[in-house]
Write a structure and sequence with these properties.
heterotrimer, A: 313 residues, mainly alpha, 15 helices, C: 497 residues, alpha+beta, Dna Ligase, domain 1, five-stranded mixed β-sheet, four-stranded antiparallel β-sheet, 30% helix, globular
Chain lengths: 313, 269, 497
């Protein structure tokens, strides 16, 4: 029996929203650390950067609140009016999961439901420790969900959830890098200085890549290496290369099931070939921001192609 | 009388539509006094048309269109030969017994004001045909005529409060009022040929009298529907006999342009 | 009070110490299992139901609340002979319902023309749908799934209280209650040869496939159409789709093109042959029924009229289970089957008839008075337990609009031992067996939904008013040793993949 398009759309978006909630949690965690551990608190700049990564800087300013840790954290976690807040992502994830309950295992559903319950009716994120605990539990539940999905039957349902997650993850990693590139160092700080290093470390923490970095690069922290790791290294699950590769694999698994290949398959394969040939040094020379901007745009086009190919609308 | 009809309905969408489905009740049927000589329903885009009949015996055409549809034009052309009938409708397909047409629908629930009006219009009169005539005359006199407008699903109770009525509103009120007096009555959509007046789709009503059968009344004209009328569809109310009911899939608004030509052929000769 | 002289299905008229001979073993089980143990098992079953989110609304009851219906651990049991006679009556009745629908919608309306039923009861009845007049469904079957609500007053005295020929619900309860009983009271299944109900899904799928339109299609596409996960019976919809292994679709998944129904899948459109819809007629197709329906599929009725899709149950069926028509069911059965109804109606006074109205007004304190179009136990007067004020209010209503009411004698409804705060005690029950009709004939699933009025003496079993459910055992005839347990009761039909 071929899967209904509505079911497919819900599964894909379930994957995207869970991934987005997870990324938001990581971003907040890393920013809290950066803010707390820096010799000089990064303060406003760090939180502005977190908002910028999640495309919510303007929305936050529209609330008229002061850019303090407490306000930004509440905005990014519990604000029902911020469509990018964790609570809204989990809400959307749960709605999609509910609509396709029967395509999920009980374990997968329970993971989503538990993550949602963490935030349901919660008003205040609390102080830094409470915030770290909260994001830690979000991460635990989303990891639990990923695990549960991997233990589901290997069929369209699993692949579509993973496809949504991979598309979302590619977007998140690209945005994270792009914002760092844009983020002006506070006056008096030098490139390669403490502040700069802290911010690159924050990025590595956000994508759980601190250890991976140490394994792969012997020469210590350098921005070129971080960029290389996050863009070109297939070994790192959150790198652009890994996401691009995963999308191709998932699409071809789906194609084998449906017997159809389309626009999305072609776009994804072309993108993989390009990223395999790309060298990080060339990207840096040609302009990281331009590269990432083009990647984000292409990723969005691929998302639309997927929606058309599987008739989400 | 030979009557030629050219009924053009053009939709223009502000954004392309992915899919359109329409149920058309735009094909007349033969009766003893109405013969359809020629009738065509044409669409200007790649659409599939399927003919059938609905539960009331009306001819139905289903229209299915897909793709990027920016505009849709429906053109109904035909020629009908009508005979003088004294308002009696005979030999039309009648799959349902007259009694069914005593039913109220959400749109035709009379309410107290209309019911009282109906009772007063016929009070003291025994003859059933005469009662219907009185009702027809009373409705003709009570309201001014308004040109047809797109159907927004108005109820007879709301229509009855107005000063001017479209043929549709008035036909529905007639049916509701007749039912109040215990007479099965129904809504009729079709065309009326009238010299020197703008053409538009028309609507009137039919009421059932034992031994005579279905009699047609046009409360807008205050008369029976004679040979200048082309009868297309009947139902309990305007919704059930709607010439076009449809749904589209796509964003944006639609603009509707309707043009109707109803001409008498060979009148001079 | 009715309760005092009621027939108890296990204990008979003799009480716990003198049960009916056939039920001595069950009475012993009830007596010997400690009440706290029964309560523990009952709670365990209810916890499972809550976890699964099993909620349902019996047709016509409020759709708003998601409720868990209390479950009672003491089963209700039918003897093989009782069941056989009951089944015959059900088959006869459902056959007549189908013949009636065929006659009035696509036949010659013989039953009206021959004066058996007054025409106004059909043509002025909102449940008669002129929109589907003239349509003959694929294979000429209208009521594929019927739930016939029965009450009982003695060992073989069953009466039909209501027919449900639209979208009878509750079958998931029949199946989940059985699951719970097998898990929690396995000893009962060793003791009794209980006919299995779990092949219901196979039988339902077989029924659906059997009415596929057109010439034999090897793999017809069957779907369950639900209003969506906000509907209170959604659990049942998804449960049925899953257990049949077919898609659970919403209106947005279906499109009609060229008078054919298609389902939108990730690999393109797939033609749909049979739709088990759990959406009321009014909302099925906005082009034919309510134009404001968002739950429906535009053009569905056109595809149906063109004979390209089967809709289960057929639109327009409401006329067959309407309360006004109900009182004519004995005549309807006689008219189409040529014999007397094996399952009688509860005696019914049609208040639209002057003599019946007079009798009703004279005996209000003895009768149950119901609105013709009411359901769920609302708009109902139970004379023997009503206050003076209630009786007078109904008297006024009856005089004002007699045609809206019917009256019935209060029956001494049977009871079944049921867990109560004071231990196991008799409580009144009713019963909804499910009857499937496909092109191969009519089948009665050996089981059903037993609803129980949990309040002492109460006759109202509706879940909205304090009713619960029980498992319903149908015992099989004794068979020679060696045959395995639990595989009989109805012919097991092989269903193709």
């Amino acid at each position: 029996m071929l899967m209904l398009s509505r079911t497919a759309a819900a599964l894909y978006w379930l994957g995207r929203y869970v991934e987005r909630a997870d990324f938001q949690a990581r971003l907040i965690e890393a920013t809290v650390r950066l803010d707390a551990l820096s010799a000089r608190p990064a303060g406003e700049a760090a939180w502005r950067s977190a908002l910028s990564v999640s495309y919510t800087e303007e929305a936050f300013e529209a609330t008229g609140q002061e850019m303090t840790q407490a306000n930004v954290v509440r905005f990014l976690t519990l604000d029902e009016d911020n469509p990018g807040s964790i609570v809204r992502c989990l809400d959307m994830a749960r709605n999609n999961a509910k609509a396709v309950r029967t395509a999920l295992t009980r374990e997968s559903w329970t993971a989503i439901n538990r993550a949602w319950l963490l935030f349901h009716n919660r008003r205040n994120p609390g102080g830094p420790t409470a915030v770290l605990n909260m994001v830690e539990s979000v991460k635990a539940e989303t990891r639990g969900f990923e695990g549960a999905v991997r233990r589901m039957m290997h069929n369209e349902a699993t692949w579509l959830i993973q496809l949504g997650a991979a598309i979302e993850r590619a977007d998140n990693t690209a945005r994270l890098l792009d914002v760092k590139y844009h983020l002006l160092l506070p006056e008096g700080e030098v490139v390669g200085g403490t502040m700069d290093r802290d911010q690159w470390t924050t990025i590595l923490q956000t994508v759980s890549a601190v250890t991976a970095y140490r394994w792969l690069y012997s020469e210590g922290l350098s921005s070129a290496n971080v960029i290389d790791l996050l863009i070109s290294r297939f070994e790192l699950p959150r790198s652009l290369a890994a996401c691009v590769d995963e999308v191709v694999t998932l699409l071809s698994q789906l194609a084998r099931r449906t017997g159809l290949q389309g626009e999305a398959d072609r776009m994804a394969r072309a993108r993989l070939m390009r990223i395999q040939k790309t060298r990080t040094s060339d990207i840096i020379v040609a302009g990281l921001h331009e590269y990432l901007g083009a990647f984000i745009k292409e990723n969005a086009l691929l998302d639309s192609a997927i929606a058309r190919q599987f008739r989400f609308i | 009388m030979r009557i030629a009809i050219d009924h053009r309905t053009a939709y223009r969408f502000t954004e392309p539509q992915a899919r359109i489905i329409q149920m058309l009740r735009m094909r007349p049927c033969d009766t003893r006094t109405q013969t359809v000589i020629e009738w065509r329903v044409d669409v200007d885009c790649d659409a599939r048309l399927r003919r059938s009949e609905d539960g009331f015996g009306n001819e139905v055409t289903m229209l299915y269109a897909e793709g990027r549809i920016e505009a849709l034009e429906l053109r109904v052309t035909g020629e009908v030969l009508t005979l003088e009938s004294d308002g009696i409708v005979a030999d039309a397909p009648e799959p349902l017994p007259p009694m069914l047409y005593l039913r109220e629908t959400p749109r035709t629930a009379p309410g107290e004001v209309l019911a009282k009006f109906a009772r007063e219009a016929v009070s003291g009169i025994e003859d059933r045909v005469e009662r219907l005539r009185r009702l027809n005359t009373a409705l003709h006199a009570r309201f001014k005529a308004a040109p047809p407008t797109p159907d927004q699903g108005e109820t007879v109770q709301d229509s009855f409060l107005r000063k001017t009525l479209t043929p549709r509103d008035r036909a529905q009120i007639f049916a509701a009022a007749a039912r109040c007096c215990g007479v099965p009555a129904r809504y009729v959509s079709g065309y009326r040929q009238r010299e020197g007046s703008a053409c538009a789709p028309h609507a009137w009503a039919e009421a059932h009298v034992p031994d005579l059968g279905w009699l047609s009344f046009d409360p807008e004209a205050g008369a029976i529907a004679d040979e200048s009328y082309v009868r297309v569809a009947v139902a309990l109310d305007a919704t059930g006999a709607a010439p076009i009911s449809g749904q589209r899939v796509g964003a944006g608004d639609e603009e509707l342009d309707v043009d109707v030509q109803v001409e008498q052929l060979g009148a001079e000769s | 009070m009715a309760a005092a002289k009621a027939f108890d299905e296990i204990w008979g008229h003799g009480g716990p110490d003198a049960p009916r001979a056939e039920f001595a073993a069950l009475a012993e089980w009830i007596a010997s299992t400690p009440p706290e143990e029964l309560a523990r098992r009952q709670q365990s079953a209810e916890a499972t139901f809550r976890q699964l989110g099993i909620t349902f609304a019996v047709y016509g009851e409020s759709e708003a609340a998601e409720r868990i219906i209390p479950f009672d651990i003491v089963p209700r049991v039918f003897l093989p002979g009782e069941w056989k006679r009951l089944s015959e009556g059900l088959v006869q009745r459902v056959d007549a319902i189908n013949a009636f629908l065929e006659d009035i919608y696509s036949g010659d309306q013989r039953i009206v023309k021959e004066g058996i039923i007054p025409p106004e009861l059909i043509y002025l009845n909102e449940q008669f749908r002129p929109e589907v007049n003239g349509i003959r469904p694929p294979h000429g079957i209208w009521a594929h799934i019927c739930g016939i609500d029965l009450v009982r007053t003695g060992p073989d005295d069953f009466f039909v209280l209501e027919d449900n020929a639209r979208t009878p619900s509750g079958v998931s309860y029949m199946l989940e209650n059985r699951e719970a009983m097998i898990r929690l009271c396995p000893e009962l299944f060793r003791e009794f040869r209980v006919a299995a109900v779990d092949s219901y899904s196979d039988l339902l799928l077989e029924t659906m496939r059997s009415v596929t339109p057109g010439p034999g299609k090897s793999r017809p596409v069957c779907v369950v159409l639900t209003p969506g996960h906000f509907n209170s019976a959604y659990y049942e919809h998804s449960f049925l789709a899953d257990s049949m292994g077919i898609e659970l679709v919403e209106a947005a998944d279906l499109v009609v093109d060229d008078d054919i129904v298609w389902m939108q899948t990730i690999a393109g459109r797939v033609q749909v042959d049979v739709i088990y819809r759990r959406i009321d007629d009014d909302f099925l197709d906005p082009l034919t029924f309510r134009p404001d329906s968002l739950l429906g599929v535009p053009g569905l009725i056109s595809a149906y009229r063109a004979g390209n899709v089967a809709i289960i149950n057929a639109p327009g069926n409401g006329i067959a289970d309407d309360k006004a028509i109900y009182s004519y069911m004995p005549e309807i059965v006689r008219f189409y089957s040529g014999g007397e109804a094996k399952l009688p109606n509860v005696e019914t006074y049609r208040c639209r008839e002057p003599d019946a109205l007079q009798y009703t007004l004279d005996n209000l304190d003895q009768l149950v008075v119901k609105l013709v179009d009411g359901s769920g136990g609302y708009g109902m007067l139970v004379g023997p337990t009503a206050t003076k004020e209630m009786i007078e209010a109904f008297r006024a209503a009856l005089i004002a609009e007699p045609h809206r009411y019917i009256a019935q004698p209060t029956l001494a409804l049977s009871t079944v031992p049921t867990m109560s705060e004071k231990g196991v005690a008799p409580r009144h029950v009713d019963f909804r067996p499910f009857v499937l009709t496909g092109s191969h004939g009519v089948q009665v699933v050996p089981g059903g939904l037993t609803r129980v009025a949990l309040r002492e003496g109460s006759l109202v079993v509706n879940s909205s008013q304090g009713g619960g459910t029980k498992d319903s055992f149908v015992l099989m005839e004794d068979v020679p040793q060696g045959q395995s347990q639990g595989d009989g009761g109805m012919q097991q039909t092989q269903v193709g993949s």
